[in-house]
Structures are given as C-alpha cells and as structure tokens.
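Researcher: Before we compare anything, I want clean individual predictions. No alignment, no superposition, just each chain on its own. First chain goes here; please echo the sequence and then give the structure tokens.
Model: Echoing the first chain and its structure:
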Amino acid sequence: MEIHHHHLLFYLVALAYFFACIEGLNRSDFPVGFVFGAGSSAYQDEGAAYQDGKGSSIWDTFTAIHPEKILDHSSGNVAQDFYHRFKEDIALMKEIGLDSFRFSISWSRVLPKGKLSGGVNQQGVKFYNELINELLYNGIQPLVTLFHWDTPQALEDEYDGFLSTNIVNDFYHYADFCFKEFGDRVKNWTTFNEPNTFSSEGYATGNTAPGRCSSYVGNCTFGNSGTEPYVVAHHIILSHATAVKLYRENYQASQMGEIGITVSTYWMVPKYQTISSSNAASRALDFAFGWFVNPITYGDYPESMRVLVGNRLPNFTEVQSKMRTKMEFLLVNRLLLAGFTSIQKEFKNFCYM
C-alpha cells in the first residue's frame, strides 16, 4: 500500500541475504532451469491510482470507504510508486540475479471502463509495454497475471462484477486485448491470482474488496456469505476456461507461450490417525484447493463440496464441463495462516474430528 520506495530495496536485499546466509547454497544446488523470481500485484506496488487515465478498481473504492479494514489504514494511491520507478526496481532485480518477475496488469489501467467499448487508455498500455521491454532488456522474463483482485469499478457498478455472468464475456475481451498487445513478448500468462482467497475474503468475510458479507459474519453493507463466494468462484472458473481456450486457439501457435492459474492453499494434517480425521483433512483440502483445481482439471467441483454446499453450489453445463483443460502449469501460493473462515463452517470441525 502506501509504503516508502526503499521498502522494495529492503525486500530484495533481504532475499539475497537469505540465500547468501545459507552455508554453501548457490545456484548449482538447484536443477538446471530452476527459476528464481519475485512477484507483485498492480494495486500493491504501482501507485498512480488516479493518474494517466487509469480507471478506478474495487480496491480504490474499498480502501477509500473502509480504511478501518486495512491494518495501517493505507491505500494503493502511491504504494511503492512502481509506476514511476520501475526501471530502478528492475535494476535491483538484475543486481541480485532474478530470472523472472511476476506482475499483474491493472484491468482498469488499460481499459478504464472495463470494456473495449469504453475506450483504451493508451498511457496504460504504454506503461506495460515499457515495463515488459525493460525486463527483457535486463534478461528478466515477465510472468503476467491478468487479474489480481482488482475488478474495474465500472463493472462492479454496472452488474456487480464477478457476481454476474456478464463478467465472463468482459474478461474474455480483456484477455484478448492483453494477448494482442503484449503476447509477442510475454511467454507465461496466469489468468487469476488466488481466486479462492479473492472469493472467500471479498465475498464471505468482507475483509478485502469488494467487502461483501452477511451481517452475521462482519460489518458489511451488502452480501451473502453463504452463496456469493460460490457464485463468484463459478464465474472465475468460466472466465479462466474461456481465456485459456482463446489463447490456445488464437495465440499460442504464433506466440509460443503458456497459460495457467495461481491458486493459494495450505496443507491439512489429520489431528488423529483415524479415518474420520483423515476424511476431515481431505474435505478441508477440497474446499481450499480442489474448489478451483478440480473443475479446471475434471470439469466439476469435488464431491465433498457438492454434498455439503448443496444447491448453493452452481452447476456446470455439459459444454462448460467439457471446457476443462490440461494445465500447462499451476502456480501454488502457500498460505502460512489458515483462512477461508466462513467457508470452513460448511464442514464443522474440519481439522478436529
């Protein structure tokens, strides 16, 4: 959020120091082709939230309306000022020897209204072109995320964003725009970052944008914690599938890239060596990880979710189910602390049976 620029230097230096302090550890200890990299998200590091034609996102709105939900009451208005200082930061990445840099494109920076019909912000396109070119010039491969939790506010206002099936078509056209503009140089795409966290924290607990939840869960103006996370997740999965299909059919042969998704999770360990405890741990993993990976891989949600969530869990049509794809890669972000609080209530005492 609004943190001083030298913090990024601290993080990069700390990373280098960490590896240097491990006695005898160097690149030769890792397999050939192992990639060392860093990652970021647009709202958390770019800043320039209202500059150069960028449209508002749900995070711009959320931090303005609900500063009490941000621990330090900060926002992404300035953040790390990466928008203005990316060349300096890339120089630091090169200095410590990073091979790749993962960043997200701010949907509302390139399409301020969320749609092509609403106009293209050429200044935003210019920024990402310059960023990609600077990375490649310095020998760092860009790994681009299309969506990192920052739905254009215009789409949230028009039809409630990911709560509507309309988002699938708009995401398709947004992805198509990005593939056309940047795909000649970007060889690794991820459609969504941590969609399970976005669905849970944004629509079940209300702790993150757009801050929706039931009144019995938290202090939210709107929302339904028992249904909305599942609806949002469903539309994300359909958006992912359409974007992957588009890329593979229209761009992959010429651009020679790969496309996948990033999911967060945490590992579940049975508390006791009993069948019921093992089943509980398995169900918890279904709700944390299988929620997205199972439909993408097999065409439907895990059976445990079908049983426990019931008719609140949306259904895939036969055509949609057949859109399941072989993943070229899967990025996994490990959560250090348990989350998904209200989702866990679907299976009582999930770790302690």
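Researcher: Okay. Second chain, same rules.
Model: Second chain and its structure:
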Amino acid sequence: RFQLGGKKIGIVGLGSIGIEVARRLEAFGCIISYNSREKKSFVPYPFYADIRELAAISDVLVLCCALTKQTRHLINREVLLALGKEGLIVNIARGAIIDEKELVQCLQQGLIAGAGLDVFEIEPHVPQVLLTLENVVLSPHCAAFTEESFGDLYELMSDNLEAFFSNKPLLSPVLDYQS
C-alpha cells in the first residue's frame, strides 16, 4: 500500500504542467521540491539545481520537463540510485528523458521501488519486460486525452496558424532537440 499524504515529491520541470502537478499534490499534504532550467521566484518550493540531489531527498520523482538535448537520458542510473530502493518515478513528460534500459535494470534489481509510465523511449514500442514487472504501472500515452485538452489544442493550433500566416511569432514553436 502507498499513502500519498506527506510524501516528498521531486518535480523535474516546473513549467505550466509541473506547477499544476505541484498544486494538486499540495492538496494531499505532499512536500514539494523541484528542478527546472532556472529557479522560479514565484513558487514557495525549494529548488535543486542538481537532479541527483533532488532524487535523493524525494520519495517520488515526477517528470514534467520538455525533451531537449540537455534532458535526453537526464534520468540515468546515478539519478535512479539516488532515488533509492523506496523511491518511485512517474514519467508524464517524454520517454527519452529516462534511460529506459537503466530504468528496467533498476526495477528488476529492486534498486527503486517502482515506476508509473505514460510515455516510453521509443513510442509506440513498450519494452516487453515492462509489461511483466509487478512494480510498474503503464498507460498508453493518453494522460492528456480529455475533451478540454482537445479544445485547448484546437485553440492553440488555430492561434499558431493565424500567427504563422500573419508573419508573427508562433505561440508554441517546434524545437528540434536532436540537432
């Protein structure tokens, strides 16, 4: 059994989604800390520049950051070991933020307690071994599929098209993290 109340939650990526996750977890009495590209002066949570230090003080590490060259495999064996045998990792961001091979090894060896994954390193491929582990909860990259999110997506897409054809800056430019 797992009781969420009072747990120490480390959030990686305190952008708009990370902030909403933090607010919801606060309602359960969780203690929030975070790592982000920069310290946010408008939030009351402790900032950790070092991801390993954040993992070491967290019961649960929640990934909400963008996938970039800097965040690809950000969660490696060192970070997972810092999270520890009682630690859980939840990835609602992008699969490649976690080194999936290292995650599988840590889960199999009991070096972390478990994982909740909505995304995978090479989607739609889910490593077969993840389907067999009892300490993993998987969902098919559908966390954002709600009527409201589709309405928001339509509005953003429409606004971006209008900006593009008006030669104005896009609201959400596409970044190429591989080049």
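Researcher: What stands out in the second chain?
Model: The domain at 8-145 is CATH 3.40.50.720 (Rossmann fold). Additionally, Helices lie at 16-26, 51-57, 77-83, 100-108, 128-132, 147-165.
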